[in-house]
C-alpha cells in the first residue's frame, strides 16, 4: 500500500486549486486534506476521493470503484472513498469537478457530525437539568407541610 513521493506530490498538485492541501501518512498510505478537511486517500499509487450518498452515483457512472481493505477478521471493508477517474489524474483541470465533489462530501460529513455533537450535548444538558429538577421536587415533597397559625 506504499506510495511513491512523486505520486503523492502529483496528487497534491491535482488538488491544490481547491485550497491549502497537505498529505499525512496513515496506515501505509496517505490522507489528503484540503483546508483541514479529509477529502482523499492515496493507497497503492491510486487516488481515492471522498463520496457520500449525493456524489456516489457520479463516481459509479464514471466506472470508479470504492476503496476496500482487508479487515483483521479476513473480511473486506469498504470506505466512502472511490478511485478518481483515470483521465482526471492527468491534469488539475480535469480533476476539478471530481475534487469539488469530494470537498462537498467532506463538508456535508463535517456538518452532519457537528449536528450529532450538538444534539448529544443538548440531550446531556437536558438530562442534567431534569435530574436537578427531580431532586428539587423530591426535597420539597419530603419537607413537612406547614400549617398556618
TrEMBL record:
Q: Which InterPro entries does this chain map to? A: TfoX-like, TfoX_N
Instruction: Tell me the ranges covered by the TfoX N-terminal domain, including all copies.
Output: 13-106
Record Pfam families: TfoX_N
PANTHER family attached here? PROTEIN SXY
Name-wise, this protein is DNA transformation protein
Amino acid at each position: 500500500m506504499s506510495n511513491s513521493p512523486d505520486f503523492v506530490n502529483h496528487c497534491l498538485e491535482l488538488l491544490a486549486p481547491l485550497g491549502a492541501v497537505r498529505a499525512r501518512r496513515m496506515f501505509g498510505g496517505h490522507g489528503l486534506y484540503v483546508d483541514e478537511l479529509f477529502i482523499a486517500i492515496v493507497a497503492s499509487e491510486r487516488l481515492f476521493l471522498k463520496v457520500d450518498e449525493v456524489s456516489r452515483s457520479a463516481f459509479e457512472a464514471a466506472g470508479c470503484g470504492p476503496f476496500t481493505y482487508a479487515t483483521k477478521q479476513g473480511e473486506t471493508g469498504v470506505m466512502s472513498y472511490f478511485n478518481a477517474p483515470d483521465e482526471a489524474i492527468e491534469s488539475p483541470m480535469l480533476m476539478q469537478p471530481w475534487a469539488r465533489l469530494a470537498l462537498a462530501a467532506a463538508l456535508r460529513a463535517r456538518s452532519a457530525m457537528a449536528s450529532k455533537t450538538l444534539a448529544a450535548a443538548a440531550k446531556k444538558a437536558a438530562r442534567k437539568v431534569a435530574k436537578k429538577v427531580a431532586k428539587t421536587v423530591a426535597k420539597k415533597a419530603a419537607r413537612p407541610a406547614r400549617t398556618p397559625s
